[in-house]
Write the structure tokens for this entry.
Amino acid sequence: MSVLFDPNVAYALLIVGLIVAILALFAPGTGVLEIGALFMLFLAGYGIVNQPINGWALVVLIVGVFPFLLALRKSRQYIFLAVALLALVVGSVFLTRNSSGGPAVNPLLAIVGSVLSTVFLWFVGRRIIEASGRPVTHDLDRLVGMVGEAHTNLNPDGSVYVGSEEWSAHSDIFVPKDSRVRVLKRDGLLLTVEPLTPALPAKEG
């Protein structure tokens, strides 16, 4: 466990823990992210509390999360993002101090870690928010009236390709493979279709 007393290791665990914790806020679910975040933050805290820390820097580091969250949802997002990044860099650099009173965390590590984590969370957060704001596209009733193509002969049952997916289908009129069809109704995952071409007599067998 002595490796945890290295301020750079403790800092790395803290940053990763904060990233996972924020991801857990964006995408709550199984609890795996929450448990992972708590575990890494516990290890980071174990290493940090055994070192001289600057309390104000820890506060700045934590408070910097809030302008980042605002950046994801406000129109003037880049102002909040800049404030969050500045808080993360300053809080990271001065989080712990060495015997002479200077920063114990390697400044280059702190800056690179802060920038990379901010950029990563920015893109992931934006994608999650954009996805959550999209309308539901899995309304199966939208298939009614759509035109597709028969993947097999429908005599009377077979399969069709409609709405970029393959479906089981039924037709009261024989439909040869590769013919164009229109969806009349949906019963669960079974589509009732009709041919767009002139009707053909049903084949025997």
Summary: The helical segments are 7-26, 32-49, 55-63, 65-73, 77-93, 107-132. The chain has two domains: 2-132, 140-195. DSSP finds six helices and five strands in the chain. The radius of gyration is 29 Å.
